[in-house]
């Protein structure tokens, strides 16, 4: 064996102990104290204005406002802790206890950062409150008048059922048509070429046309031209058809990304067992691709659900149209806010649901036994 | 009797030649080891035999039947020619049982119950009977590779192609996999292996081929290739392998 040169000559170049001084804390701590005080004061003022606006001598409202105002001071606590740490650090440094000083300084900076993060949140809340009560509460009065909300609530919710039906109908069709288009784009060989081009054209065109225009053209055009079958369909079906046309193009792209993300070795493994191209696609590639594209697929579905608010242009009374009817009769936008709230409430659980699905699937594949 | 015949096969990826006229004959029950540096064409040769890659010229005959060129039913060919890959390539969304029974039930025409019975039998042989319902991600690399071998064997192939099947495994897991191959060799299965396990090649091979730059530079019995290689390139390759402690 030849003598191997060491990578580093430890004899000539001994390791020096690292004695880095801890970073200073004082400035950050003081900034945190100042900012959290300012945030709390702003929040307090905004709350006071809100309380004055409600004009109530209601004790409950007062109590809520006071509690909220006190909560606005919470960011000050970690800020004060940071100041204490800063002092400790200085005294430890004076005693040359560097390791402890470093430890204390790190804790202090962490407290100060925490305080700043919470103070920022208080600021945002204060700004929102201030916005809501500007013009003597005109904002709140326009968007959130309780009496109008109560009046519109039932009709709007009933009309929302139309949105739900259109969304579900379109989603089912989109799942099928989107996959068909994605697979069409993958057909190999010269025989598949025309189909590939068609599928590509479809995706390009329907992703380019604004959904509202497709709705308009389908809603009025098909019945105007007396197209057989379509002229006899109720408008809600035409809405489903139009949304399917638009969203299949998006979903086809999502599927395609998923199909292409499956490693070629999966193809090789399946084909080497004698599975044909379509069999491989069906049993090996598509199932894996769909698992993978679930989150972006649901994203597109949430987009689709929101676009059901556009079907009013083809004369279908959906939740949004209904709320506008009420809104124009009372000269107030609170009924429209109701629709917004309903959409939020309908969407959030779906996002959580898919998160759970993805987690469960991963856990199952990791854990093993089925 | 010659079972597998490879005649003057050329293959290139774009302008990069990978196989430059490979010819090889494999008799039934023979175990042929392909050795050589990375990029010498071992894997490509195996993939060509299974028609996962199309060849540019030459011909490949399995059981006297040409399997290259137009009009050949590749799916039938592949049923008879099994393949195991370096990175296992199990189907991650299927249980071990489903991985093994997929091909027999889908294309072998085997009823589900019979296929599952056979799968359990195979799993017992490779010592993984308790993993029947597990998913690939829950298995170690060695276990996955053993399942991959069982999956290929479930189709009762006439020849098995093994593409560096232990190269991605931790050293302590290699033994279990090689033991299965040893068992298959003893059972008389015709096999072609691309491998870096020289000791193993020496032990099981009836024929060793040294590939260099897309050609079979030297071939012979393991004793001759490992102890008395005539080509300078083979000597260089083997001495590097010995230096790395792999022989």
Automatic annotation (TrEMBL), chain B:
InterPro entries named among the record's database cross-references: AAA+_ATPase (IPR003593), ABC_ATPase_HisP-typ (IPR030679), ABC_transporter-like_ATP-bd (IPR003439), ABC_transporter-like_CS (IPR017871), MetN_ABC_transporter-like (IPR050086), P-loop_NTPase (IPR027417)
Record domain ABC transporter: where: 4-238
Q: Which domain of life is it from?
A: Bacteria
Group of enzyme by EC: translocase
This protein's GO cellular component annotations are: plasma membrane
A Gene Ontology molecular-function term? ATP hydrolysis activity
The answer, when asked if Ligase is one of the entry's keywords, is no
Q: Does the keyword Ligase apply?
A: no
Q: What is its EC number?
A: 7.4.2.1
Q: How does it sit in the membrane?
A: Peripheral membrane protein
Pfam families, alphabetized: ABC_tran (PF00005)
Q: Where in the cell is it found?
A: Cell membrane
UniProt keywords, alphabetically: Amino-acid transport, ATP-binding, Cell membrane, Membrane, Nucleotide-binding, Transport
Report which reactions are catalysed by this protein.
a polar amino acid(out) + ATP + H2O = a polar amino acid(in) + ADP + phosphate + H(+)
Signal peptide residue numbers: none
PANTHER family xrefs = AMINO ACID IMPORT ATP-BINDING PROTEIN, GLUTAMATE_ASPARTATE IMPORT ATP-BINDING PROTEIN GLTL
Q: Which family does it belong to?
A: Belongs to the ABC transporter superfamily.
This protein's name: ABC-type polar-amino-acid transporter
